[in-house]
Design goal:
Helix content of chain B: 25-40%
CATH architecture of the domain at 284-489 in chain B: Roll
Distance between the termini of chain A: 17 Å
Shape of chain A: elongated
CATH architecture of chain A: Orthogonal Bundle
Structural class of chain B: alpha+beta
Largest interface: A-B, 58 and 54 residues
Radius of gyration of chain B: 24 Å
Structural class of chain A: mainly alpha
Number of strands of chain A: 0
Number of helices of chain B: 15
CATH topology of chain A: MetI-like fold
Number of domains of chain A: 1
Number of helices of chain A: 9
Radius of gyration of chain A: 22 Å
Order of helices and strands of chain A: HHHHHHHHH
CATH topology of the domain at 284-489 in chain B: Dipeptide-binding Protein, domain 3
Shape of chain B: globular
CATH class of chain A: Mainly Alpha
CATH superfamily of the domain at 284-489 in chain B: Dipeptide-binding Protein, Domain 3
Largest sheet of chain A: none
Oligomer: heterodimer
CATH class of the domain at 284-489 in chain B: Alpha Beta
Strand content of chain A: under 5%
Number of strands of chain B: 19
């Protein structure tokens, strides 16, 4: 098993198991244990309100990974549908869809997310929908490019001649042939979404206190980095390792495919 | 807060390796870059130049008009002077007025003005300026926040160029204390049109560049009547985030922070590069429940929301050990002779009963708006949320943008966090809790309290007046819609090169005596 798989698997396991592990409360405050270093009682120390950093860090993956997973699945569905539709349609409709995708790609995602969170709302459903919309265009563009090549192949012509429906062609012929590039792109967008959501929380526009979420934890702890670095470093390491893990996993998979 | 962080996610890249590098770069930014955000001031200390951070809390709508609600508070006391200032113990001392005397009924106060004082434009300061300034403060059409403090002034009579008589509509034994309000500053006659952006005062510094969202620059007034300032310039860069301001001081972008959290004290006290001062102050934070929103119109709910808290524990969690002094919903600080020290121990059962009596046997859900605009705002609400849980009070915390918090959230949302500086009892009680006050944050109309305030101010006997002010605070604990858990012990941090800052509240700081080596 690759290092990437171990890291990503470990993250998923910890996020799932955090609620059942014998950890301290994520919200319980202790005025006698503010910004304390690592100890037997608090393995990763405490934050500025005396809360257990280990517990908050392990629980912190739940909202981040949860939102990123749902958003990337929606983005993947949307992007795949849009990309293959454009490729199949061809002509002016293909051009029109791709220009719209270009316009969306030109928009700074975080800025759009901040505007949505400020003026529409920061409920999870709103944020997930916006993240999916903002990160679907790159997937659509990759799928469109890859599908275009596949659609000119003889087996597609054969499928058409035998009367296969468009849906059957997309699902049965196109998807298996672009799966590698599609999965790679979706995995990469997962990491971008994860970082975007954490950034939003860091800016105070994502999850609300006292939720344990990595971006919010980094924001809370940044003022005390010199007094007590663990409350900041713990979520940073988790966020960084998950992003690197996904990258390593994708690279490993691509190398295996090539060989 | 939005202006300090740029985390722009680049769109799809052509190669996976490049994407990975970008991902790592973003993470690195998250880890290290974003922890040191700040303004654009220079990073080296210059002799003779003091740089003090401004929180940009009014989002650019700041004005140098000291009577306006959006007054640019970091600078007004550098540019203007009061008639009466405050000493280290907050007692009144001469500033532009040399002396003052009242009639026996305390309804007329005659002030002798200092002679030879000039405004920054070279014109003389005299009694006409006093009449003009106080007329603006009490103008009902302008409705300045200062009017809540000095609204008892009926009119001001210029006896001669250096003497004024202030005639009150009711007796006020503490008028000198009220005139020492940090906004009761003297402005020149007919300055209304220019004072907002190009102010002319008598203060130790004159305005050079007014840029509340960038860097405001003040130059020393060599003719200042209390002596030539030791600084050449004061620069006030905008840093709209308390934690970013802390990092700015650590990084040398500013020279002084008026208050850093007690939890951050060791950042500055453990090194010879900085000096710190601990000041037991009357600065307080509070949570306001606006009574024009249900269920805060019900006194039982209001009281339940306040008595469900273990204030000592909350103070320790929010401010750190010895970070503050517990308050029982009184804005009057521990050093004030009129302070009421009541018993406000946590009473979960009492809170539950009050809520049940008010029709909420299953508890209530409330939403509190807070922000990073000040150090303790978010921590206060998180600690409150945790404390009141046992009483069935379920709190949803909503974060608002720090930039513009005072314009968009404060006194706009049903429940919000507030912050006040130290003020003497007669001033703060009238300014925050009188029904007609412009900054009556909760909108609570309490005519009985208004009557008590009137009665207290016109009581000439000192003991009798103190008892009445204490009774007012006791009434606040029973009826108020403002939860006030503590008064802060301030930690002022500054570069070791900054000298001459006395360990006193900001209202009493003499800016002309400060120097930077």
């Amino acid at each position: 098993m690759s290092a990437g798989a171990v890291i990503v698997g470990g993250h998923l396991l910890l996020a799932l198991a955090a609620s059942v592990l014998p950890l301290q409360s994520v919200v319980a405050q202790d005025s006698n244990a503010i910004l304390q270093g690592a100890s037997g009682a608090h393995w990763l120390g405490t934050d500025s309100l005396g809360r257990d950093v280990l517990s908050r860090t392990l629980h912190g993956g739940q909202p981040s990974i949860g939102v990123a997973l749902v958003a990337v699945l929606l983005a993947a569905t949307l992007g795949f549908g849009l990309g293959t539709f454009a490729a199949l349609a061809g002509g002016w409709l293909d051009d029109a869809i791709m220009r719209v995708v270009d316009v969306l790609l030109a928009m700074p995602s975080l800025l759009v997310l901040m505007l949505v969170a400020s003026f529409i709302g920061r409920e999870p459903v709103v944020l997930v929908a916006t993240l999916a919309l903002m990160y679907a265009p790159p997937i659509a563009r990759v799928v469109r490019g890859a599908s275009g090549n596949v659609l000119t192949r003889d087996f597609i012509l054969a499928a058409r001649l035998r009367g296969a429906s468009r849906r059957a062609i997309v699902v049965g012929e196109v998807l298996p042939n672009i799966a590698e590039v599609f999965i790679t792109e979706v995995a990469m967008q997962f990491t971008w979404i994860l970082l975007a959501f954490s950034s939003l929380s860091f800016l105070g526009l994502g999850t609300s206190p006292p939720t344990a979420e990595w971006g919010l934890m980094i924001s809370d702890a940044r003022g005390f980095i010199t007094v007590s670095p663990l409350p900041l470093l713990a979520p940073v390491v988790m966020l960084a390792s998950l992003v690197l893990g996904v990258n390593a996993l994708v690279d490993r998979r691509a190398q295996a495919e090539l060989s | 807060m939005l202006n300090k962080t740029v985390l722009r996610l680049t769109k799809r890249q052509p190669a996976r390796l490049r994407r990975r590098n970008l991902g790592v770069a973003i993470v690195a930014l998250t880890a290290f870059g974003l922890v040191s955000c700040g303004g654009s001031a220079s990073t080296s200390t210059s002799a003779g130049v003091l740089r003090v951070a401004n929180d940009a809390g009014f989002g650019g709508s700041e004005t140098m008009d000291p009577y306006d609600g959006n007054r640019f508070w970091p600078a007004i006391n550098m540019v203007f002077d009061r008639l009466i200032g405050v000493d280290k113990d907050f007692s009144p001392i001469p500033e532009l007025a040399e002396s003052w005397v009242a009639n026996d009924a305390m309804t007329e106060w005659t002030l002798k003005l200092r002679s030879g004082v000039k405004f920054h434009d070279g014109s003389d300061f005299d009694s006409a300026d006093v009449v003009y300034s106080i007329d603006r403060m009490i103008d009902p059409t302008f409705d300045s926040p200062v009017r809540a403090v000095l609204g008892i002034i009926d009119y001001v009579d210029a006896v001669d160029a250096s003497t004024v008589t202030i005639v009150l509509s009711t007796a006020e034994a503490d008028l000198p204390v009220l005139l020492a309000d940090y906004r009761a500053l003297m402005t020149p006659v007919d300055s209304l049109d220019t004072i907002g952006k190009a102010p002319v005062g008598t203060g130790p510094f004159s305005m050079q560049t007014f840029d509340p969202e960038g860097t405001t620059v003040l130059a020393a007034n060599p003719n200042y009547f209390l002596g030539k300032p030791k600084l050449a310039r004061i620069e006030i860069p905008a840093i709209a985030d308390a934690q970013a301001a802390t990092q700015a001081l650590l990084g040398g972008q500013v020279d002084m922070l008026l208050a850093v959290g007690a939890k951050n004290e060791s950042l500055f006290s453990d090194t010879s590069k900085f000096t710190t001062q601990r000041i037991v102050s009357g600065d307080w934070n509070g949570i306001d429940f606006q009574v024009n929103h249900k269920p805060f119109d019900d006194q039982r709910v209001r009281k339940a929301l306040r008595i469900a808290v273990d204030r000592q524990q909350l103070t320790d969690v929010v401010l750190g050990k010895d970070g503050g002094v517990v308050a029982c919903d009184t804005p009057v600080w521990s050093g004030d002779p009129y302070r009421w020290d009541g018993d406000c121990a946590q009473d979960i059962e009492g809170a539950k009963k009050l809520l049940a009596d008010a029709g909420f046997p299953d508890g209530i859900d409330i939403e509190i708006f807070t922000s990073d605009v000040e150090d303790n705002f978010v921590d206060l609400v998180q600690a409150y949320q945790e404390q009141v849980k046992a009483a069935g009070i379920r709190v949803k915390i909503t974060m608002a943008d720090a930039s513009g918090y005072w314009d968009n959230v404060w006194m706009k949302e049903p429940v919000f966090v507030t912050s006040w500086g130290q003020r003497p009892a007669p001033q703060v009680l009238n300014e925050v809790f009188r029904s007609t006050a412009a900054w009556n944050e909760t909108g609570l109309i309490d005519t009985e309290l208004d009557g008590l305030l009137d009665s207290a101010r016109s009581t000439l006997d000192n003991d009798g007046r103190a008892k009445k002010y204490q009774a007012i605070q006791q009434r606040l604990f029973d009826n108020s819609a403002t939860f006030i858990p503590y008064h802060k012990t301030l930690v002022r941090a500054m570069s070791a090169k900054v000298k001459g800052v006395a360990p006193i509240v900001i209202d009493a700081v003499r800016w002309e005596q400060i120097q930077v080596d």
